Inverse folding.
């Protein structure tokens, strides 16, 4: 009889990687929320709030930081426990 080898199934990431990944996704969502709004109800009236600091500088920077956090969580090597 052949002895079946039992292998412990390991996930690709550990709990820390998933935590950092969720933080990165939350930062990306926050950036898109900051980017929203600024429209005008009347199409004949131009609203200057489209060119506000929040929508031009802060929101895209927040989204890029979120993508950076997400990429870090993917590239971070999980700790090997023995």
């Amino acid at each position: 009889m052949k002895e079946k080898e039992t292998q412990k199934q390991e996930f690709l990431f550990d709990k820390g990687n998933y935590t950092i990944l969720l933080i990165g996704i939350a930062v990306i969502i926050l950036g898109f929320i900051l980017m929203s709004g600024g429209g005008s109800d009347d199409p004949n009236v131009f609203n200057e709030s489209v060119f506000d600091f929040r929508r031009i500088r802060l929101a895209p920077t927040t989204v890029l930081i979120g993508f950076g956090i997400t990429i870090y969580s993917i590239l971070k090597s999980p700790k090997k426990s023995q």
